[in-house]
Design goal:
The chain is an alpha+beta fold and 217 residues long. The protein has one domain. Helices cover 39% and strands 22% of the residues. The chain contains 9 helices and 10 strands. A 5-stranded antiparallel sheet has the order 5-3-6-9-10. It has a 3-stranded antiparallel sheet with strand order 4-8-7. The chain has a two-stranded antiparallel ribbon with strand order 1-2. Strand 7 and strand 8 form a beta hairpin. The radius of gyration is 17 Å and the shape is globular. The structure holds zinc ion. Zinc ion (ZN) binds next to strand 5.
């Protein structure tokens, strides 16, 4: 296999690559022998959760799990995507252009993806920052909402923010939260959950990198 990346996790090295040499994550939909980046194969959602398989590489998960979430999912405590090995999640947030490039335009292909999976990818892309929400064991409870499957997350052991493929600064994270906040506020007010959102914002602030850590990084 040829790839344009060095130091890939072993499991990611085993994935097929596209014409550019980019490893194709297990969750990506294929059509006519071509991976449809960044469209999620919705049929794999249930398979991954039931079999405890990694969303990125498709192998069996261990105890430590990384949920790749944007600020919207972090604030709602729910995500449409199953977890990955921590190393695989780290590969995604550092190398996946759809997650690591804050200025990337949403692809026209997003329109082909289904339900929450598509929406979540778009929200991550637009916010400019992505986190690995680390849990042990199952780490979440699945539930149905709005015609899609969501995973209600348990409190994280760690929450690591990335922007543009590197650890995010406090400013990156605050800017990303500010981008999704108007949408979340509208929904929370409509549903009478505004105090809830205020509490979640305070909670998330504790998981935002400090200015000092940002300068060192
Ligand atoms: Zn994996």
């Amino acid at each position: 296999m040829t790839t344009r990346f060095s130091d890939l996790p072993k499991r990611v090295q085993r994935l097929p690559t596209d014409r550019r040499g980019f490893p194709v994550p297990w969750f990506v939909a294929w059509r006519d022998g071509e991976p449809q980046f960044p469209v999620v194969d919705a049929a794999k959602l249930g398979v991954a959760w039931a079999g405890e398989l990694c969303w990125v590489c498709g192998d069996k998960l261990g105890a430590l799990r990384g949920w790749v979430v944007g600020p919207m999912s972090a604030l709602e405590g729910a995500t449409p995507e199953p977890p990955s090995h921590y190393d695989c999640a780290r590969f995604s947030v550092r190398c996946c252009p759809h997650l690591s490039t804050p200025t990337a335009k949403p692809s026209a292909r997003y329109g082909e993806a289904e339900g929450y999976a598509a929406q979540a990818n778009v929200s991550k892309l637009r916010s400019g920052a992505t986190a690995i929400w680390v849990t042990r064991g199952r780490g979440a409870t699945p539930f149905h909402a709005g015609g899609g499957l969501l995973f209600g997350l348990e409190g994280p052991e760690r929450l690591e923010w990335y922007a543009a493929g590197r650890p995010a600064s406090a400013a990156d994270v605050r800017a990303a939260i500010a981008r999704v906040l108007p949408t979340l506020r509208r929904v929370a007010e409509r549903e009478g959950r505004a105090p809830d959102l205020a509490r979640r914002l305070q909670w998330l602030d504790r998981w935002t990198p400090t200015e000092a850590a940002s300068r060192e990084g």
